[in-house]
Amino acid sequence: MDLRLLVQLGIIGLTFFMLINASALLVYAERKVMGFMQQRYGPYLVGPHGLLQPLADILKLLMKEELRPKGADRWLFTLAPILSVTAAFAAFSTVPWGAETTLFGLLDEPVKLGAADVNVGVLVVFAITSMGVYGIVLAGWSSNSKYSLLGGLRSAAQMISYELSYATAIAAVILLAGSMSIREIVDGQAGSWFSIVPRWYVFLQPLGFIIYMIAGVAETNRAPFDFPEAEQELVAGYNTEYSSVRFALFPQAEYINMTTMAAVATGLYLGGWHGPFLPVEYGWIWFLLKVSAILFLYIWVRWTVPRYRYDQLMQFGWKWLFPAAVVNLILTAAAVLYLNA
Amino acid sequence: MIPLGHYLIVSAILFAIGTAGVFLRRNLITILLSIEIMLNAVNLSFVAFGRQLGSYDGQIITFFVITVAAAEAAVGLAVIIALYRHRESLNPDAFTSLRW
Amino acid sequence: MPETLVFYLLSGLAIVTSGLVIGQRNPMYSVLLLVASFGALAGLYIQLDAPFVAVAQIIIYAGAVMVLFLFVVMLLNAPQEDAAEWDRTHPLRQPAFARFSALLALLLVVQLVWALLTAAGTDAPVAARAGSETVSSVRALGRTLFTDYVFAFEATSILILVAMVGAVVLARREGDQA
Questions:
Q1: How far is C54 from chain A (nearest CA, A)?
Q2: Architecture of the domain whose range is B27-92
Q3: CB B68 to CB C57 under 8 A?
Q4: What tens digit of pLDDT does each residue of C107-121 get?
Q5: Interface residue C55 vs chain A (CB under 8 A)
Q6: How far is A267 from A274, CA to CA, in rounded Å?
Q7: Is residue A120 part of a domain?
Q8: Which H or E run contains A101?
Q9: If both were cysteines, with which of A179, A187, C54, C156 could C45 make a disulfide (CB 3.0 to 4.6 Å apart)?
């Protein structure tokens, strides 16, 4: 068989495998960072420094009893977590995580590091993320329970509202880069000004970056926007009635969504895999570092700030964030037009 | 290469399914869904013809059809909600007060 | 060869799920099957070198309009609504009308297929664009949209505004303040 085809299939498999690992690592990282922020040790018993804790968690979840409430819709109850996790994995497909590589001269032509490369890559991420709403709404509805329904509807409304600001912030970056493919957007950020300041879009679009990060946090239902799954108010929101494997898929979908948002933020604003000391074939190391930094930011914010009330959340999304995103887009368009004329 | 006729046949079958749904179903929401099927069938034939003629016009019209369909679905659903509040039924046969 | 296989797979999926949409008793299932049908159609658009339309279909149609349908179905509690009347109003229990209309639909499909297969010019394969690249460029699409069709574009934006206001007004309860 063609070696290049095998290598490309291997890259797709590696991407999938690393996403699963990312969700497991995030479980551990979140509990460790949360522990240290609360001046206690996180998990430390299972394995060295508690590193095998996610494995213990997954084993525990797999061995629990699979419950389904009697009044729950049979097909939709099982379909909802499948939809959630499928959308989460599929959204990462057009996100590139490294430059081209020839695998140390093994291949004749370099192969790109990333599952797929389409010329509307950013829109594909956005489209598949918006399909994740179905998983949550169906989970809320099919559980046939009032906490689930409220949590599911609130979460869906929140995700749809913040998608607007998310898309408008992305549109400003597309204006700057002139392309919708994330790989080309990253390649437009190579090099540096005055040999010191890297040519990242976060310096050209600070407001856009802040809007993107806030919308990203709201899209993935993370604190401070996690009212739909708030433990104190709604029991567990849309995943109240779920147990065992079906339950395990929901947090996994959430962590993978977080990873996708962080990866897209890295690609759009922080220069992707371009970094100072390494040659560009090893750029994926820089990519990992930047994504880890943004994920740490996510966890940090979650355990620092209190939660938004639901009406405050919706007001903020529609009355403050979306106008700010539109203003950002108009200013960017004016600047691009003026500077190119 | 797939001949253009194949795409048009798929579009025709989808259109026929949508029409059958509008006539046979007695639930307002399913009737609206069948209308959406018909609009999608038309979109498919637009894009296929646009590709055949080598012009972007097919895609642009599809763009507008999607937008108009979204607006129409929103208003149609609002009307259905208002009707349901009035008569507590989603069966179009229940709304016969204008019939002689 | 794989292209033909993908085409048959996607179009088969679209037709089967659309057929199931009009045959399902539960409107919730109908909406989800229609989302699957839209996904299959998006795949067909990609095969027709229209990636932007495919993605726009997923974002707008499958991601927003169908969620609206889902919300309305949940709001009106439609599943319980339809089940009681299904046995009374099921199309297959009204023999003459249903069989006649099914026959008409079949006749329509047969006529269309016959017309399409014998017409001239539909046998030619879907041609590549004269000249430049085979995959459509979003840049060129945007340029055409904003120069030749800018009036329709602006009119559509006003249409969406009117639809938004109309939907809010129509769905309001009697006596609501805002």
A1: 9
A2: Orthogonal Bundle (1.10)
A3: no
A4: 888 888 888 777 755
A5: yes
A6: 10
A7: yes
A8: strand A96-101
A9: C54
Asked if the structure places residue A262 within a domain, the reply is yes
Query: Could you state, in order of their start, the residue ranges of all structural domains in chain B?
Result: 27-92
* Residue stretches of chain C with pLDDT short of 50: 128-134
Q: What is the domain count for chain A? A: 1
Domains and CATH numbers, chain C: 1-109 (1.20.120.1200), 137-178 (no CATH)
Find the closest chain C residue to A178 by CA distance: C139
Query: Which of B6, B51, B66 lies at the smallest CB-CB distance from C61?
Result: B66
pLDDT, tens digit, for every residue of B3-42? 888 898 899 899 989 988 888 788 899 999 999 999 999 9
Return the higher-pLDDT residue of A71 and C149.
C149
Of A73, A93, A123, which to mutate for an interface test with C (greatest number of C Cβ within 10 Å)? A123
Q: Per the domain annotation, does A173 fall within a domain?
A: yes
CB B51 within 8 A of CB C45: no
Rounded to an integer, the average pLDDT of A59-64 is 87
pLDDT in tens, A268-289: 999 888 888 777 778 888 899 9
pLDDT of residue A76: 87
Task: Compute how many other C-beta atoms are within 10 angstroms of the C-beta atom of residue A215.
Answer: 26
How many angstroms separate the CA of residue A190 from the nearest CA in chain C? Answer: 23
Of A46-60, A188-202, A293-307, give the lowest mean pLDDT range: A188-202
Residue A281 domain boundaries: 67-340
Structure tokens at A14: 């590696």
Min Cα–Cα distance to chain C from B100, Å: 22
Q: Report the gap between the CA of A250 and the closest CA in chain C (Å).
A: 19
User: Could you give the CA distance from residue B48 to residue B7 in angstroms, rounded to a whole number?
Assistant: 7
- Per DSSP, B97 falls in state T
Chain B CB contacts of C15 under 8 Å are 10, 13-14, 17
State the DSSP string of C54-73: HHHIIIIIIIIIHHHHHHHH
Alpha-carbon distance values, A91 to A103, A124, A156, A183, B97 (Å): 26, 7, 18, 15, 50
Please indicate whether residue A262 or residue A235 has the higher confidence score (pLDDT): A262
A120: nearest CB among C35, C51, C71: C51
ipTM of the prediction: 0.91
Q: What is the pLDDT of residue A323?
A: 95
Burial class (CB in 10 A: 0-12, 13-18, 19+), C100: exposed
* Better-scored residue on pLDDT, A318 or B2: A318
Q: How confident is the model at residue A106 (pLDDT cuts 50, 70, 90)?
A: confident
